[in-house]
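WP5 quarterly update. Target: Protein jagunal homolog 1. Source organism: Atrichornis clamosus. Length: 183 aa.
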Amino acid sequence: MASRGGPRAAGTDGSDFQHRERVASHYQMSVTLKSEIKKLIYTHVVIWLLLLAQMCVAHFKLLPHDQVAMPYQWEYPYLLSILPSLLGLLSFPRNNISYLVLSMISTGLFSVAPLIYGAMEMFPMAQQLYRHGKAYRFIFGFSAVSVMYLVVVVAAQVHGWQLYYSKKLLDSWFTSTQEKKKK
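Structure tokens (predicted):
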């Protein structure tokens, strides 16, 4: 059209290039999905840190057991759930498909499976609380089973959305890979 500081072509205001400035949709989707997954990973890290803090406080007896109960068994394997999140973050800079796939598989193994086990482990105590109003474990005056079920529900949603967005991101990356192979 024109040089950087030179004259413009006659009959143009310089805005007729915008139709050529579009970003391919799979690249736009990749950026958007990476952003959403990062938000979910940061939310997961907050949940993970809260569980880690609860475990440290209980094991090191920093507070009495009537304020912070000992952790349930499902919380120990859930601590490994930080690994899939790190793999997911490592996959983003170079669109590494293998890291993203490993992240998705390990999310199921280290994140979702302990949450399912935790829901089953705490169910009898939740049933007793609901039927008889008796709770034997507490976290800052609240029933530990109620607090931990809330954590399980929130974490399950975070990991579910993380898996969903990861699958869509994987599809987006495969689309861009297929287009590169066609060229």
